[in-house]
Amino acid sequence: MSLNGLRAALAEDPSYARVRTLASRTPERRSEDLQIGAPQGMRAALLAEMVDGLAAAADDAGTAGAGTTPPVVLAITATGREAEDLAAALRSYLPLAGIEEFPSWETLPHERLSPRSDTVGRRLSVLRRLAHPEGHPISVIVAPVRAVVQPLVAGLGDLQPVSLKVGEERQFDAVVKQLSEAAYARVDMVSHRGEFAVRGGILDVFPPTEDHPIRIDFFGDEVDSMRWFAVADQRTLTGPHITHPTELYAPPCREILITPSVMSRAAKLQSQMPAAADMLEKIAGGIAVEGMESLAPVLVDEMVPLMGELPAGSLSVVVEPEKVRARAHDLAATNEEFLAAAWATASDGGAAPLDLSAGISADLEAASFRSLADTRSAALANSVGWWSITSFNPDDETVLDIDTLTINAREPRGYQGDVAEMMEFIGSRVRDAWRVVVVTEGPGPAARLAELFKDNDIPASLTESVDTEPVPGIISITTASAGRGYVFDGLKTGLLTEADLLGRASAYSTRDMRKMPSKRRNAVDPLQLHEGDFVVHEQHGVGKFVELIQRATGAGASKTVREYMVLEYAPAKRGGPGDRLFVPTDQLDQITRYVGGETPVLSKMGGSDWAKTKSRARKAVKEIAGELIRLYSARMASKGHAFAKDTPWQRELEEAFPYVETPDQLTTINEVKADMEKEVPMDRLVSGDVGYGKTEIAVRAAFKAVQDGKQVAVLVPTTLLAQQHMETFGERFSGFPVRVESLSRFQTSKQAKETIEGVKNGSVDVVIGTHRLLSQEVQFKDLGLVIVDEEQRFGVEHKEALKKMRTNVDVLAMSATPIPRTLEMSLTGIRETSTLATPPEERHPVLTYVGPYTDRQASAAIRRELMREGQVFFVHNRVSSIDRTAAHLQELVPEARIAVAHGQMSESKLEQIIVDFWEKRFDVLVCTTIIETGLDISNANTLIVDRADHFGLSQLHQLRGRVGRGRERAYAYFLYPSEKPLGEVALERLKAVATHNELGAGMQLAMKDLEIRGAGNLLGGEQSGHIAGVGFDLYIRLVGEAVADYRGEAEEKAAEMKIELPVNAHLPHDYVPGERLRLEAYRKLASAVTYEGIDEVLAELVDRYGEPPQAVKNLIEVARFRVNAREAGLTDVALQGNFIKFAPADLPESRTMRLQRMYPGAQVKPALNAVLVPKPKTARIGGRDLVDAEILAWAQQVVDAVFKE
Q1: Residue 941 three-state SS
Q2: DSSP of 509-555, one letter per residue?
Q3: Rg of the chain over CA atoms, in angstroms?
Q4: Residues 764 and 712: beta-carbon distance below 8 Å
Q5: 628 burial class (0-12, 13-18, 19+ CB within 10 angstroms)?
Q6: What secondary structure letter does DSSP report for 604?
Q7: Strands 832-836 and 683-688
Q8: What is the pLDDT of residue 524?
Q9: Which stretch of DSSP H or E encloses residue 714?
Q10: pLDDT band for position 804 (50/70/90)?
Q11: What is the DSSP letter of 816?
């Protein structure tokens, strides 16, 4: 990875060596302004020289050991992305520990949105290291200009992080208090950075700088152990490569902490700033609020520039000053615009942004971005140099006022992918004894380049890192991220990168998306019921959730406590109070949430209306099931190809995946492979939200099919998507002998003909194409797998064509928002379904704003996105007026580069425009809904939809899925014309989209769509009333049961079990706090019907909540007893007076005899179909009643002796 050998080689060049000499002078003697002219690829190497120069200077002065903080180099880039790339390039030249990135907020200083906690955590740990190096000084900081010109709250470097070590004695309550003072939010279950949860002696913390949250066990006041755990299932991480932490380092999560002085200031300001009164009120009460950073300047003592925080004598280096200057100017302008436009807070109900009429405005200005000139004077005041590196060649004649230095290097010549010319040129250089180093981002391309050079007889060697000077006449190939290369003609030395040789850098790598997901067991999905939510109880119908309640029975030694869920039903008498049903927690598996109409009618308990509703639905369902079964049995009867197990290549391909797979992705991939290995043809629907990694599943499945010599057809709805998949598949399969071709309108007829020929004779392994794949002309030699992407876009006739193509071919369909019919089929088990519900980490929900359209809003939204170098989709679904709209936007935002795209353009032109947009040649794409299908542009993070009231739900969701693909915060604006009234349904849709904006909402929206529209043609009108009648979950379950019935595999419904024994079995509040967590635990336990299932639940409880107390152990025992009693055919074991009733009891004579012999006084009651056994006591006379574990053991014995065969 290291390229230090190159630096040694370059030191022979006088102009390059001079950089270090100049940097090593003392601050008084070195020039304040120095402009260095050098090619783009040299920047990292030059910064490394400056770092070494500063270090040398510090050694000479003898200050290195004198306790002062050593000076640092601060590299200032124009954008955050450039900062990340530069930091990555520096890692090839400098030790890792000394490089820090100082990220900027992703919000504007005056916006009422808080920056993300991980951004804040990273910023604070940099400032902390600057103020207190403690033996690990920073040598270079890379920061975007936005982070440099934004003033900081004074004293951030001195904030104490919360730190703990295993084995340390710390007061538990004190640690909790410290965390909340450091602005960590206390929750019942940790799911985001910057949260913590307390349960008994267990503390869960998610520090903003870590990939996983940490679970800390205290033993009294001693830190007993620490372990990582997964957010998805709240279980400890296990695995060969996981090493658990031994210390916790938790920096604060906000840059303004609530201290007594902040609280008192907030209280005083309430009257002066009416617009912010509600925020100030909360802050005065000590509660942190979203967006409180925007008030920082009026709440803290002073705001200081970043330059003042650097150690004296440091160097700041502006990379590409021209670009940085323009960027700083835009920042200031946009910030002003936001202060002026009421848009900054439109997201929270349109309250004006902070009211600046008061005399406070001057104070608030203190947080605004500084100009570069101010920043420079702040730097010089702190004796920090202000150097710059530009790509132009400055010389002393033209630049008079500052010192300049030009490095004798040039950019390498590009070959734009012309391999032959490249080989010839490089070959001649190498024969001329040049020293050439070639770097690639990943090992794959490196190996391929090595082969290329070998084929052309050019000596080349693959090396881990270039630590010594490169040898003349041999190319060294290594992996590092360098971005661009450079050439020194005088030294005959050059560095070439992938971008120089192949004409394209590998797509902006997202490897930095934090590694986080890990294999999960059971996803934690707390059943969140609020008072008044509708639920469906299978026996009693639709009721309303009231509360969870603990009831005690008995007194003294035999007192027992159980928890019940209280549901309210329709009153039995008119006008009376509602009937209440107490559901024991071990029957929670009977209860599901009601999803259906808006407000359902409550059922009467014990009445016949619920039974009627249910049987009506059942009848309708029976008819549907018959139809579905025919489809299903046809598939089950056909024989397909059983694919072989995974090959070593498959593993190699999977390991090259640049992201970390999410847990759902792993299970889905395994399911798909298992299906492929069976003989029955696969028919699986993968429904996952937009951008949740469906494509990777397709890639792996396709590769598996090709390994078996079968062909794969990938069917996509748009040409554009075909091209994107083509790139993805091509990139993932490169290095393997797999031929991927595409068939779409973007090819010449000659290319298409070749592809079709290749498909026919079997030389093409994977073909990606649009509807054209379904036409008669395409004949496959040996088709093994069909992948249908964005399945909801194909019409019925396409599906018919598909069916002909594939009675016995494996099919994998993928969709973000399945259409109701598909959903229905998959939910009822006719097609297997996998759902991807875990967002790739580091994704943020898209901030969604729904409102009337105004010009000012549109322009501010576009400017905000341009400011962070992003791109905007502006969707306008009328081709006739689209050009007019684009021209109007051009007037509003003159500096934006705007392009128009719609389906009526010629193919090649449309293609060109989208590709240009992809390569960032335009900022705003005004287009029709042509983008809704699977365009993956990670840099476009603002979506504006004009006339949003004309779109369908899944369309709106798909559109919104086009933004928020990268790590930036994304914004979606759904606007409707302000003068026209909204239709009822349009309003419903927009409301649904606005509420379901968290990640993974695709499935919820699909369900909502199913409610608004009914399930469409699958069932015609028949089902319309039934979903509303019995609720969606139960309806689907009924269809599932009817289908199973037809298959002849009707599973016996596990009978409702009632166990009422004097056992103290519940989850105490201090063991599992919070209603939703208790509900979730009860629910899991109720649905565990095997001993293994119960053990799994127990393991989870121990892992998440610590050692269970006696009441919980009893609860587990009751669950085990339930399994046993169910096996013996019992449904009711309960206390009745002085007896315990076991029912049903059809005992033969011999058993009755045994019963009466073993338990004298036992009675058989044929009328009740039950057996009554006297309540057991410790002694026949004067003994006490058995309770808890003892009575369970006794009951178990009765069941084993009398009821078991």
Answers
A1: strand
A2: --TTSPP-----SS--------TT-EEEETTTEEEEEEEEEEEEES-
A3: 34
A4: no
A5: buried
A6: B
A7: parallel
A8: 46
A9: strand 711-715
A10: low
A11: S
Q: CA-to-CA distance for 435 and 466, rounded, in angstroms? A: 12
- Nearest CA among 847, 1073, 1145, 1087 for reference residue 199: 1073
DSSP designation for 80? H
Q: Tell me the CA distances in angstroms from 1032 to 873, 1024, 1035, one per residue in order.
A: 35, 11, 5
- 520's CB contacts (< 8 A; 6+ apart) are 230, 232, 233, 235, 663, 838
Mean pLDDT confidence for 630-655: 77
- Confidence at 142, pLDDT banded by 50, 70, 90: very high
Mean of pLDDT values over 41-53 = 88
pLDDT of residue 288: 80
CB distance 602 to 570 below 8 Å: yes
pLDDT of residue 799: 62
Pick from 950, 1009, 1003: nearest CA to 975: 950
Q: Model-level pTM? A: 0.69
Q: Which of 1164, 1165, 1162 is nearest to 1175 (CA)?
A: 1162
What is the C-alpha to C-alpha distance for residues 946 and 942, in angstroms, rounded to an integer? 13
Can you tell me the distance from the alpha carbon of 321 to that of 390, in angstroms, rounded to the nearest whole number?
7
pLDDT confidence band for 415 (50 / 70 / 90): low
CA distance 702 to 650: 10
Is the pLDDT at 607 greater than 70? The verdict is no
Please choose, from the candidates 449, 929, 16, 1190, the residue with its C-alpha nearest in 3D space to the C-alpha of residue 1175. 1190
| Residue 1050, number of CB atoms within 10 A of its CB | 12
How does 637-667 read in b/e, with b if 16+ C-beta sit within 10 Å? Answer: eeebbebeebeebbeebbeeebbbbbbbbbb
- Report phi then psi at 1006, rounded to 5: -65, -40
Strand-pair category, 247-250 with 222-228: unpaired
Which tokens hold the place of 377?
């004077």
Greatest Cα pair distance in the chain: 117
> Please, what is the Cα angle at 1187 between 1185 and 1190, to 5 degrees?
105
Q: How far is it, in rounded angstroms, from Cα 501 to Cα 535?
A: 63
Contact 551, 562 (CB under 8 A): yes
- Candidates 531, 547, 536, 528; CA nearest to 602 is 536
Contact in structure between 427 and 456 (CB atoms under 8 Å)? yes
> Comparing C-alpha atoms, which of 509, 501, 507 is closest to residue 920?
507
Burial code of 870-893, b = ≥16 C-beta within 10 A, e = fewer?
A: bbbbbbbbeeeebeebbeebeeeb
CA angle 189, 193, 197 (to 5 degrees): 30
Pairwise CA distance, residues 1194 & 681, whole Å: 52
Render pLDDT for 311-323 as a digit per residue (tens, 0 to 9): 888 889 999 888 8
Strand 493-497 relative to strand 486-488, pairing: antiparallel
Please name the residue that has the structure tokens 């937009």: 690
Torsion of CA 1188, 1134, 1129, 1095, to 10 degrees: -30
Tokens of 104: 């900027």
Whole-number Å distance between alpha carbons of 1059 and 1134: 6
Tell me how far apart the alpha carbons of residues 79 and 1082 are, in angstroms, rounded to a whole number.
Answer: 50
Q: How far apart are alpha carbons 1115 and 328 in whole angstroms?
A: 63
Question: Are 852 and 976 in contact, with CB atoms under 8 Å apart?
Answer: yes
Helix ranges (H only) for 1073-1148 are 1075-1086, 1091-1105, 1110-1127
Instruction: In whole angstroms, give the CA distance from residue 11 to residue 35.
Output: 19
Closest alpha carbon to 143 in 284, 317, 314, 359: 317
Helix H, strand E, coil C: the string for 903-939 is CCCCHHHHHHHHHHHHCCCCCEEEECHHHHCCCCCCC
Structural tokens at position 100: 């820090």
